[in-house]
Fold each of these.
Amino acid sequence: MKNILEVKDLKVSFHTYAGEVQAVRGVSFELRKGEVLAIVGESGCGKSVTSQTIMRLIPSPPSIIKAGSIIFDETIDLVQLSLKEMESIRGSEIGMIFQDPMTSLNPTMTIGKQITEGLVKHQGLTQEKAQKQAIELLLLVGISRPETRIKQYPHEFSGGMRQRVMIAISLACRPKLLIADEPTTALDVTIQAQIIDLLKDLQDKIGSSIIIITHNLGVVADIAQRVAVMYAGKIVEQGTVDDIFYSAQHPYTWGLLHSILRLDDEEKSELVPIEGMPPDLLDPPLGCAFAARCPHALNICLKEDPQTQIIQDEHSMACWLMDKRVKVKIC
Amino acid sequence: MSETILEVNNLKKYFGVTNGVLKAVDNVSLSIQRGETFGLVGESGCGKSTLGRTIMRLYSATDGEVLFNGENVHQLKGGRLKQFNREMQMVFQDPYASLNPRMTVGDIIAEGIDIHRLYSGVKRRERVAELLHTVGLPEEHASRFPHEFSGGQRQRIGIARALAIKPQFIVADEPVSALDVSVQAQVINLFKRLQKENGLTYLFISHDLAMVKHIADRCGVMYLGALMEVAKASELYRKPLHPYTVALLSAIPIPDPEVERKRERVILEGDVPSPINPPPGCRFFARCPKAMPECQVNAPRLIAVETEHYVACHLYK
Ligand SMILES: Nc1ncnc2c1ncn2[C@@H]1O[C@H](COP(=O)(O)OP(=O)(O)OP(=O)(O)O)[C@@H](O)[C@H]1O
Ligand SMILES: Nc1ncnc2c1ncn2[C@@H]1O[C@H](COP(=O)(O)OP(=O)(O)O)[C@@H](O)[C@H]1O
Ligand code: SF4
Ligand code: SF4
Ligand SMILES: [Mg+2]
Ligand SMILES: [Mg+2]
């Protein structure tokens, strides 16, 4: 299977008055064609910076891509593109859906205009053809009476409908890759179910490759084939959904899995929080970033950052517990 | 054994808006026993916060009554009112917006103590230190400002503030929704511990059904200003009766890929309708997969279908 995206050792920082915020500290992952990859982790761990860097949406300054490459469709390194080149890719080959559908739509422009704009610009369609396609797209994302809807403005739509419109816009040019950053976080659960269903449908019918960023592990279990767990600017564990849910190896992943509740639990299980807070990325710790909160931390963890190692097939993680030189038992 | 601490009878809270009447809470009745946690769930805009705020007297009632320890809270005056304001406290959703950025943590926590002139000087300082300790923060934090704290820490400060004057009843409106899951668990465990230690009663408002199932003894499901179903939390999840509850539970993905692969979802069409000039009949009619002709005309009343299991739906007579 071919990779639609290969991110290698990506490092992104922000220069602020307080110093350098190391938001992304060496992230590597791959996305196969037609696959859904979920990126999970606590707020501030670098999920949005990673995805916005792929889209080259973060202004520089204050941000700089310090290292790494982002190979799209096996040939193009997005890091090396000029902003102008990037703009044409953004409108046509990579689509993005953001958390807040209200702020990402233009309030002064009709929905129809916002969908057709890209079609006219990137695909050279006539206004008439673009209009027809806009109506089809709205139908595809489940908006009824699209003929009247395209003449309306965003404020006339509910939150869930705006998110559908966003999806319609990002699909307009049939992108090879769709990046959805917390697409359902601002929505109610019944609407979330509709949007997730829609994304699954797109994967099935159009074969879209999707990166979904979320902190909701239920959504991950529902939609993803592979999962990357991020902590403090790094991917600490990565694998298939089954690897992560049933044979997680990293203490942070264990912590995440224990701190969530399941609706189908028979008993009222004890909630086990991860004590403490993630580190400040202005001054990340020398060793493993999770060491201060990790119940299994060893001396070496405080001094040296563990390297990512392959556990089996696609399952990898970065933790000293995996090192052959470390002999410990964990129960 | 059980003693009713709060009783809400046919409570209505309407807001006048330009194009009609917004029925945020429409004829809600429920009762809460001393020492229990009553969970209130429902989608955005269904009236959870408005109900909580009307119970707290932050809003006047349009109609109906709220009895706290047998007294109508909307008719309290003078000393009785002051007493009520001490006994019922609120913890808010947004740990960022609900703390005054210009006040020290100590002064924020002591706000109620100062208003009610409970302690001063050393006594006041000791009480603040004790409260910080209770919610798991070091007492040195009293002299710091809210912006120096993380979301979870701020929510602990909000809880310490609510506890300061030893309330009996706490309305917690989405107290953990703004927090990361790992931190949510910290705050939820704190809520549970404080209840055990102080015999508190909670009205716990949330749109996170798994969270409510975990913390609540009984649970009410709201839709468009009205209660659709009330039952023991475990019963509600094991055996939901109202079509809306069934759809709501089915919409929530379970963090377990095996389970998700096998699950069939009831996906509701459309959005929650506007609460402005709502149509007569059942509130859920427009989205209900089981709707019948009479549902459009007659609004079902909340009735006991089984012991302690109440449902407002014409399917259950
Ligand atoms: N002061 C007000 N004036 C007019 N309408 C109001 C007012 N407060 C609330 N409403 C409306 O009342 C309805 C119920 O709102 P409420 O805040 O109680 O919902 P909620 O269930 O708490 O939702 P959420 O889950 O989003 O917090 C909504 O339609 C809201 O817009
Ligand atoms: N414009 C910015 N200036 C400085 N720091 C930033 C900026 N945007 C993001 N960051 C920091 O980068 C880190 C990662 O942020 P982000 O990717 O938004 O996290 P999340 O995983 O919640 O999406 C955080 O520490 C955040 O504070
Ligand atoms: S490297 Fe050490 S501190 Fe980090 S997760 Fe592994 S055991 Fe814990
Ligand atoms: S009363 Fe009718 S419309 Fe309402 S929930 Fe029951 S079956 Fe559905
Ligand atoms: Mg983000
Ligand atoms: Mg609310």
Amino acid sequence: MPEYSLNVNGKIRKVNVEEDTPLLWVLRDTLGLTGTKYSCGEGICGSCTVHINGKAERSCVLTIKDVAGDKITTIEGLAENPDHPIFKTWIDLEVSQCGYCQPGQIMTLAALMNENPNITKKEVKENMNTVLCRCATYARIDKAIDKLVEEGK
Amino acid sequence: MKKQSRREFIKVFTMSGTGLFLAAYTPMNGFFKPGDDPKIFSPSVYLKIDNNGIVTIIVHRSELGQGVRTSLPMLVAEELEVEWENIRVEQADGHPKYGNQTTGGSQSIRKSYEPFRVAGATAREMLIAAAAIKWGVDVKKCYAEKGYIVNKSNGKKLSYGELVDEASKLPVPENVLLKDPEDFQIIGKRIHRTDTPDKIYGKAKFGIDLVIPGMYYAAVQRCPAIGGSAKSFNDSKTKSINGVVDVVKISRGIAVIANSTWSSFKGKDALVVDWDLGPNANVNSEIIRKNLESKLNEEGSDIEIIGKPNSDFSNNINIEAVYEVPFLAHAPMEPMTCIAEVKNGKAELWAPSQNPQGLRSDVAKALGFNEDDVIVHVVFAGGAFGRKLVSEYGIEAAEISKASGKIIKLTWTREDDMKHGVFRPASMHKLKGAVDGNGNPVLFGHHVIAESISAQRFYRALPVKDSDLGEGTKKLSYKIPNIKISGSIVPTHVPVSWYRSVYHTQNPFAVESFLDEMAFAANKDPYEFRKKMLPDNSRLKAVLIKAAEKSGWYNKLEAGKGRGIACAECYESYIAQVAEVTVINNKVKVDKVTCVIDCGIVINPDSVEAQLEGAIGFALSYVLKSKITIENGGVAESNFDEYEILTLNEMPKVEIEIMKNTYKVGGVGETGIAALAPAVCNAIFAASGKRIRRLPVELS
Ligand code: FES
Ligand code: FES
């Protein structure tokens, strides 16, 4: 099996996996970073969202080959700063229910707000619309977005 | 100090000696053994206090996102007089000693409200008694406060940790005093969830995340037609895949074992299986629908008869309608998963189960083991909604482990769960109503036509009257002189199971939509029409009135918009919802839902609100979008692109009000579902004049 060198959460990690292995499973099974979740495996739900060079991407539809050399951040990397305003707001508003989709929600939002500090609520919500939550925590995600965008101004 | 006179006495059942029964439960590990460190005082299966003063509360129900790892500990902490920050939470394994552990029927709080408070109060009384002995004073001179027993006369304090030793030697009190709800310090407060931070940091381990040293990964290919089986299979391609280590046949299909999830998925896809599609290979949704339809002209078996519903109502305004709903998948975001280690006649499982006791006995049965030789550890579930009540995924995992001699984690793909899960039954509903010349209802008839979950799963010959078909339609609070609720059980090969709120997903949709039709026929306002039928002291009436007020029921809406109202009783709670919708070009947007609940005493109001918001979104998925179709004996949909669920932008604004009272604790997790579909569909009618009698909504 080929060896790949990955830059995950600021650390270089060497992994030996088949070249068609989705990044999702490398993170989860090989590197033990299980905060990135599997739900649809087809890029539909957003549960598996990570940052590739700062952009939100769905790790279930990226192969290890696609991301070799890129800067990868997972929810564990973002949580190195537990005081990140998104986490604080999420806890404040008690957004999470089962919690399973929440790393994907948070990673998607973090990238959006980071990439464009002047992003509007509407733009955020349009982008977040494809991150599914079966517990339907949407009412509070919506409030959290409003609060964070306002505070970011 | 709490006013003693206001406490309510609760009988504690005791055994001889120092052993203790709380209600019918035996203690988990009795009292500490000499030499144990830390020493642990465990006067109940739900509670441990060690000599460092750490209080651990053992939660016997599963955390599915409803907040049970927060609300159950709140009950103990309230009576124990301990600060919330000093509470630790532990998840119980599946075992009968905990009493019923099934996390379904919105009963986690309802059924634990007393036992968990008694556990806390018992420990408190024993700690007080221990301090009284140490100080040589009367127990009346001592009280509990914030983790200490205080001596009233001199203000001296002993921490709970210091008293653990002495308390463990004491007999258990015959009776304990519970607080008056007016004195609650923790119950009724908005307490932050204990599990949220780790979940959002990506640290919490859900069932699918867990790793057991030495474990392999497994995936299963199952027959595309439900009820079929494998005739033969060729695994040569599978075995050539890097990482695949074994292929074994199990009762439901062919399992691939590999050293990563991805290799197991690839290996499963590469299997070439010759399926015997079995007896259902030609069944499709149309055939199933025809079976239901064939009962429409029958009367069905009586479930409930009030007055004389079979007499002649031809002098009245008579209306009839047929409602119908499809099969639904629960589709929690975490697909089914289970770790199993089966070795030397023993099995150990780790599962995000809603029913660990059932899983334990089902696995024991499947493997031919004694129940005592099966251990089930309960792990966080990434959503469940009823899906994780059944045991088939755990049996599969146990069979794979047994056949391969390996510890394995079985992961279902999303497609596996969509196609091979269990489903909310499809149903048809024949409604009949009559209103007299004054617009008063005189007859209400509802014939429920569906598969019965209890009949299919437990006892095929179950009489309709004793079945689950009447849930959400019998014992209506409405005073209508003549009522007939009847049912026809129509067997199907599609495995059916309990969905969040079960038959409340369909019966109140039919009942409350049809009541709107009756109001319309009677030329009455649908809210007034309902209100008039409800007795004055009815809790349902109170929430109905509140919801109408709060939503501004009589306020004018612009063209294209409409308001609909519905109410229901569900698991000992009462709910009324008003939906506001916009219908443009046959597209429905639900703008707002006003929701009023009476669920008796409230433990954590924030969790109640979260559950209601979530239930509204969950129900809206099946009102507007979701549907399972049967083709060639199997499920046609396979992923979220075909089985659509609600998205952020489709979520309405939700306004909630919780009635304040001290009625018995009612269910919450499912109650928010019951009135939503009819409220939305009645609003669509108000906005567009189009009556929705079939879900999901399709306007043309
Ligand atoms: S798991 Fe990647 S988008 Fe759903
Ligand atoms: S919180 Fe459960 S799926 Fe989103």
